[in-house]
Every structure is written in structure tokens, then in C-alpha cells.
Write a structure and sequence with these properties.
Elements: E1 3-7, H1 11-23, E2 27-31, H2 34-43, E3 50-54, H3 62-70, E4 77-82, H4 86-94, E5 99-103, H5 107-124, E6 133-136, E7 139-142, E8 147-150, E9 153-154, H6 159-169, H7 178-186, H8 196-207, E10 217-220, E11 224-227
Parallel strand pairs: 1-2, 1-3, 3-4, 4-5
Antiparallel strand pairs: 6-7, 7-8, 8-9, 10-11
Helix pairs in contact: 2-3, 3-4, 6-7, 6-8
Length: about 230
Amino acid sequence: MYGILVCDDERDIRGALRIYLTNEGYTVYEAGTGLAALELLQLHPEEIHLVLMDVMMPGMDGVTATAKIRESSNVPVILLTAKSEDTDKLTGLACGADDYVTKPFQPLEVLARVRAQLRRFTVLGGLEKPASALTVGDIMLDDDAKTVTLSGEAVSLTPTEYDILKLLIRSPGKVFSSREIYAAVSGDTYGAEGSVPVHIRHLREKLEIDPANPRYLKVVWGKGYKLEGK
């Protein structure tokens, strides 16, 4: 089973989270400061699969600790924040945190977010990544299984959408013109290349949180399209 590191300077919160998590079968490690959390990660790098990190702590705060973690590890980090800490939430996410839970939190919400991040990490972070998988950011295309997932969740694509995504994900950052995309997926040098923007729009609707401001599928005006992201 997975190991969860709970870092919070309040003993009662650590105790409550320990009860919720151990009841679900997780192994729990506890730290009262950001520095102690870093030391535990160094001691148990293979046993800790996710970190629940409080933002406001004496000494090294949670945001600083998260940034330090990201220097050597991609373990998922979920911040524990107060409602008034919006700036810290954004700063923490910018420093590499994967999600946040606002205090006072509901146990079911914490467990749901833990499960989601562990699923994302195990599928996309390398623990169970198929040899045939191609990934960009949270997008994974497994060409052997002919499947596409986003943050571990299955995404249903049409055959044309799948072929376009496969073309783009094989060459992250490379710009393909509409004609090149159409030729690659249809086998025709000339044809209905005007349909490509429609397919791109549908892909954005399925793969982007905000299709109007895409993280992955980018247009290069006058040139074509590319897939990028971390």
C-alpha cells in the first residue's frame, strides 16, 4: 500500500489525518515542520508516495518545503491551507504543489484528493507507465492499448482525433501545419485540411481545463499547431 507523509505543526490535525488515512490502508509518516518533512523524505524516498503539507508552519513553511521537494522529487504534494491563504495557494502551486485542500476540511474530500493524486502519479509518474506510452504533461497516449488518459482518467477520442494527438505527442513542441496534419492522418497530400481546426477544437474541449486558454494544444498563428506542456 502507499505511504503518506502528513506535515502539520498542529498535533490534532496530524492525528485526525492519521486516523482517516490508516483506516483506508495507507501507511502514515508524520512531521511537525517543513524541515522534518524533508528529512523523512530523504530517509524514506521509496516508501512515501504523497505529501500532505500545511502551508503556515514555524521555521520552514509549506511553500518553501514544497519548492525544496521539487528539487529532487516528483512525489505529489497536496497543500493544507486556510481560507485566507489564497496567495499562498497560488504560490504553492507555482512552486510545484499538485493540489490543495482548504481547512477546515472534510475527511472524504481529503481522501478523494489523495486517491486522485496517487492515481495520477502511479499512471503518469512512472510507477505503472506502459512501455508504449507517450506523455506530455498529464496527457498519456498508449498506442498499444489505443487509449488516452488525462490525469489518469480515460478520454474518449474519435479515430481522427486520436491520430492527430498521436502525431503531435510524438514530437512535443514541433509545429505542424494544417496540411501536414491532414496528410498524416488521412494519407492525402491535398484535401479537406480545413477540417483540422475543428478537430483541434474538439481535442481542446476534451483535454483542456480551459479550452479558450489551452495549456497543451497551442496555435502558432500562420504556421499551424503544436502540443506542449510539463
